[in-house]
Design goal:
- This protein is an alpha+beta fold.
- The protein folds into 2 domains: 10-167, Sandwich (Jelly Rolls), CATH 2.60.120.10; 186-293, Orthogonal Bundle (Arc Repressor Mutant, subunit A), CATH 1.10.10.
- The chain has helices at residues 97-102, 107-114, 128-141, 144-163, 187-200, 207-214, 218-229, 233-251, 256-262, 268-279, 283-292; strands spanning 10-11, 14-18, 26-30, 44-50, 53-58, 61-65, 69-74, 79-85, 89-95, 119-121, 166-167.
- The chain has a 6-stranded antiparallel sheet. The protein has a 3-stranded antiparallel sheet with strand order 6-5-8, with no helix packed on it. Strands 1-2 form a two-stranded antiparallel ribbon.
- Strand 1 and strand 2 form a beta hairpin.
- It starts with 9 loop residues before the first strand and ends with a helix.
- Residues 191-289 form the HTH araC/xylS-type domain.
- InterPro entries: Homeodomain-like_sf, HTH_AraC, HTH_AraC-typ_CS, RmlC-like_jellyroll, RmlC_Cupin_sf.
- Keywords: DNA-binding, Transcription, Transcription regulation.
- One of its GO terms (molecular function) is sequence-specific DNA binding.
């Protein structure tokens, strides 16, 4: 949780292949720079444009974002900054997709993002710049309680964005889609899989159920998911369950057994095994560390 990235590193042999990091949060403050080529990665990405503006190429379509805006998009869509103006700076925030889906925003809001739209807040808040400075300072401490607080505040900022006026560029409209098969041609199936998992991860889920929901053969569903998301369906479901369990360990006094069952793990032994393998600590030790700090 404390290993936040500051840069999405690309594979030089393929600009559309990231070198991991899909499960890490990220934060970066910098002067906007023109990118030599498009890239993609699995995060939900926030860009704050403080006293600067930018032109992007999103899946082959040009969009212009005025200064003093906050944008939100699924970075799995190929994107590239192609022009910038102004003397300000921008802040990039990377949110793992499974974390974003566990925050339970409205279906309409999530669906708009997963369909490939770029959401633009109609205005920044007076405290947005100072908030990002506070987040940057808190992350530098590597204090686990402060890091969790930063994550909570980012979640709440996105929640407020979802409730306030925002605009889009109609990138997901049928007229805006290319007739040729694009790099994101399988995303409609991925969106359906993600939606089904997000709604049902706390229950018993099989690959067959996921495949039936999308009308795909189970083998094809697994291969497509792994190709796009860089992880297996099973691993992705466990990530969502772990996110849910972490929140319950921090925010409730429920027993570890009840948390294991509520998050969708079939048994406490399975929960302990997966939790310890992922975080190198037990659920109870994790809870104690947060409480003590």
């Amino acid at each position: 949780m404390q290993d936040w990235i500051s840069k999405i590193k690309m594979n030089n042999d393929s600009p559309l292949e990231v070198q991991g990091y899909e499960n890490s949060f990220g934060f970066k403050r910098h002067k906007p720079r023109i990118m030599p080529r498009s890239h993609w990665h699995g995060h939900i990405e926030i860009n704050y444009l403080f006293n600067c503006s930018a032109d992007y190429l999103i899946n082959g379509q040009k969009i212009s974002v005025p200064q003093g805006r906050m944008i939100l998009f699924w970075a799995l869509i190929p994107h590239q900054m192609i022009a910038t103006a102004g003397e300000g700076e921008m802040v990039n925030i990377y949110i793992p997709l499974q974390t974003f889906l566990s925050w339970k925003f409205s279906d309409e809001f999530i669906g708009t993002i997963l369909q490939g739209e770029v959401l633009v807040a109609d205005r920044l808040h007076a405290g947005d710049l100072s908030a990002t400075l506070t987040w940057e300072s808190d992350l530098a401490t590597k204090n686990s309680t402060l890091v969790l607080q930063v994550i909570d505040e980012i979640r709440n900022r996105i929640r407020r964005m979802s409730l306030e006026p925002f605009t889009t560029f109609n990138l997901a409209a049928p007229a805006g889609r290319k007739s040729r098969q694009s790099l994101t041609g399988g995303l409609v199936h991925i969106q359906m899989i993600l939606k089904y998992i997000a709604d049902n991860y706390d229950k018993k889920i099989t690959i067959g159920q996921v495949a039936r929901e999308t009308g795909l053969h189970p083998n094809y569903a697994m291969k497509l998911f792994h190709r796009v998301m860089k992880t297996s369906i099973k691993q992705y479901i466990n990530k969502l369950r772990l996110q849910h369990a972490q929140a319950l360990l921090i925010d409730t006094n429920h027993t570890v057994l009840n948390i294991a069952l509520e998050a969708g793990f079939g048994s406490i032994s399975r929960f302990y095994d997966i939790f310890q393998r992922e975080y190198q600590t037990t659920p109870q030790q994790f809870r104690n560390e947060i409480v003590n700090s």
